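Tutorial sheet, problem 5. The three components below are modelled jointly, 1085 residues in total.
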Amino acid sequence: MALIPIQMPQLGESIAEAVIVEINIEIGQQVTADQEVFQVETNKAIMGVTIPVEGIINKIEVIRDESYLVGATLGWLEISEENAKQLGVSESSSTQTHVSAVDKQSPPSPSDPSAPGLKSDSARETSESQGPLTVQPTIEGLPVPATATGATYLSPRMKARMEELGLHAADLSGIAGSGGAGRVTIDDFERFISEIDQKHRTDASPMRIAVADSMRRSWTRPLATVGSPVQLDILLEHRKTRQPKPGPTLYIIRALAIALAENTAVAGRLVGKQIVHPDAIDIGFAVEVDDGVLVPVIRDVDKKPLADIVDEYSILVEQARQRRLPPDNSQRGPGIATVTNFGVFGIVWATPIPLPEQNLVLGLGRGIKWPVWDEDQEKFIPATEAVMTLSFDHRILDGGAAGRLLGRISELLQKPDSL
Amino acid sequence: MSITYLEAIQAAQDRALAENEFVYIYGQDVGSFGGAFKATKNLAAKYPGRVIDAPISEDAMVGSAIGATAEGMRPILEMQFADFSTIAINQICNQAATQFWRTGIPCPITVRLPSGGTEGGGPFHSQSMEAIYAQYPGLIVLTPATVEDAYSMLLEAVTIDDPVVFCEHKYLYYHLKADQLPDKNLPVGKARIARTGKHATVVTYSAMVHEALRAADTLEEEGWEIEIVDLRSIKPIDTDTVLASVARTGRLLCVSEAFPWGGVNAEVISRVTSEGFHLLDAPPKRLNAKDTPIPFHPNLWKAHRPASQSIASSLRDLLRY
Amino acid sequence: MAEAKIKGSKNKYCDSESRYRAAFRYMLLARVFEERTANLYRAGKIVGGVFMGKGQEAFSVGLALALDKNRGDVYGPLIRDQAGRLAFGEALLDAARTYLGSIEGPMKAREGNVHRGNIPMGIIPMISHLGSHISVVSGRLIGKRFCGQKDAIGGVCIGDGGTSTGAFHEALNQAAVEKLPLVVAVANNQFAYSTPTDRQFACDDLVDRAIGYGVEGHSIDGTDLSLCLDTFQKAATRAREGYGPQLVIGHLLRLCGHGEHDDASYISEKHKQGVFGRDCVDVAQQYLISSGWSNLAEIEQWTAEIQKEVEKATSCAQRESGPDPFQETWQALATTRLAEGNSTA
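Model answer (structure tokens):
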């Protein structure tokens, strides 16, 4: 008979520990291969822990509702010598087995770039899952960081080299890494750089670089976009009655401000475990300029009726186009949300990216006049309809809340007098 | 003509005795017997009264050598085995190593330590003591890996005005041969690139240089080019050469026959990570002997110390990262 | 060689009287200086510790006066040999500077209190590991033998506790094997810090060890200056004439703590009243007066001079600056090119 440990499995990237929620076995119980012996809960899911081979439960090392590190021994399984041999484990030499398993495999050879480190992954994972076994957190509640490897890991040398060249992680997306778990090694990187060197290159404008930097920072979040149609006829009619005529964008800005003032949390930002609420309903709007986009801000839009901001809006658009926005316009930051009217480019649908400091960007597509079925009149009538999109940080909003926000804006737009 | 590592040590002492009348050799059985390993063969007859048998008193051997330097002498001490130098550790580390700092008067002694493991050596005739001595301020610690270095570095050691701990490797005594002794060589304090490469750097010294070279041969067949830095001198460590190599390769493996806790490997890795963090494309690795006393039986001994296979395996791990 | 012989025969102290008077004056100087350092220690002017030779001055000075630094003799004092150091030729100012941490001192304030020496003069700078300086003195004699300087001898000091170390054994055996002209003075002051001799060794008298090492042994009352002077003179002569190492045991009592931080409460009244409990300075003073070699007035005059001398040395050392960490080289090697930087990384 041989004893083998039942171990807390790797439950997903960056998960370091899990809580035992169910113990399905008793000491002395006969168990079969792949039988679920524990249920564990991470902050993502409840999962079953199975055993690799039939045997008898010899010992249970865990208590229900306690948390254990990945790799921790949850219990011991008594298995037959024969099975032990087959598994290549014995109680005294389980680590040796792992070493020899590693030894047998060679890393991918540089002359064989088609095999970038994947072959050895199983061996690597074995060695990594051994790691946390010996490391116990000294302070209860402190997270144990997951081992820093994998495709996204940048070595100190990579970081230094990228800083030297002014590159960002996003610039590496075109490189297939040959390191462990697909990591981009310095050799991969230098090869990429030397390939780039041979191509035709021009300098990006400072505006382009600023936009790129902003978008890259924003893209570190899980962004999502939803859209819904909005009828613009009432709005367009209303617009005609006004002098000067407010643009459709301005209606949207005002509707968004009112909707947000009713529930500021949706425009909040998630920092750690807290939502940081906006302290004023300042709304930005995108203005296309040469080789980029500028976002002037109208402050406290919730407190200003539409008529009061028509002039301010026109001046800001003009200043932005001339790149002469007064510095105090961005004094209070870029606002809490941005409105972008991509319909002016003929686009009907887009997934704009919110500014890194914001949770929301509201987009308006091109209005199209087409038949819309009218339930009351029981016939198609012509209507001008556009798609309104909302891009948001999915950590803060879900599809439902985003849809409700769009719905409320749509509702407000049907009563332009109240704006 | 071919000359062994051991013969080079004998020849260096012969030359030191011939060229400097203040040099004398003191150690157990070094006189007419010529030393337990014959490192002083024929020297007692050639230099009467200057190659002296010592009682089994390592402490007094070193203490008296320290005193003799105050009279202008340049003693070479032979510890029969490096392991036994622990008896003299007080004299070496507290007396010899502190003297210049305390008094401004240099203490030029050379302590030869027949170091490292051989088959069947066991726990008390196999140790590598270099890291222990390197830890103490005021000592120079040398670890020659080649016949040429054994010769030139021992000759230089005798001329150095500070206490030198000369760790010569017993396994290399007979195994290593050269065609001739060098006229010129790198000075003490400079590391040597024993093999050039571009995928990973192995920093090592003494007998492990040869194991690493064999491992590099194996990996070459797999398409990897491994650079090997032979430190030659443990203290001072030539950090510049190490960093330059890591700058070329981005990956570092340190190999030492000594026990794993602390030591030369830890020192090299510490220096590279703090001074050359930006050069590293993978976490530096180290390979040492196991953390047990050194076993007697050859089967165990071969598994206890790093060897070409385990170095190759560590390198594969490193290259896979 | 001929010159050395003349030098040797022309002793500074050509008769017992001048020798005794000189010895007494060194004892007095050491006593007054040590009391001054103890006061400076209690005043917070000296850090680290003060270790006194109170009660051991006669034995200490006995060995040192049997040595002649001008002849190349070597001296290895230990912590209770202020009197011997002065008699051998160490400047009082060196002692004061080392105790008070002056940068002008021989150890440049890198070392303190009794851890001082003067290698060119022949004084071994002791380290704290007892017995390890004996083989260093032997080594100097071996070096002198290599250099053809056969006339010089070495004198080295140790206590009863120090004889228990391996270093003591190795060194004495080595000196015997090499037949070195070495006088080993063992001040058996009854206590090694607080440990009494019955917990230190089991032989009746440490001199019994002499026969085991194959060296000549002497065992004397270490509180009697005449006896100390004569015995060391004899032992030094025997060593110089080629009879090998001389082991001289002096029986006495430490009349103070191990250091000034120690009140020595473990030393019993019985010890203090015992035969070795008398103060060698008092004994010597009485002898000087009773023999007519001096008188109270002269001794008072000496004391006054000595107090001035001590005051001058200690105030000078106090006025001098201490070490500046920014001026310190922080280099432990003589070979500068091989010194590593002091990495703070």
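Marking note: The radius of gyration of chain B is 19 Å. Full credit if you identified this.
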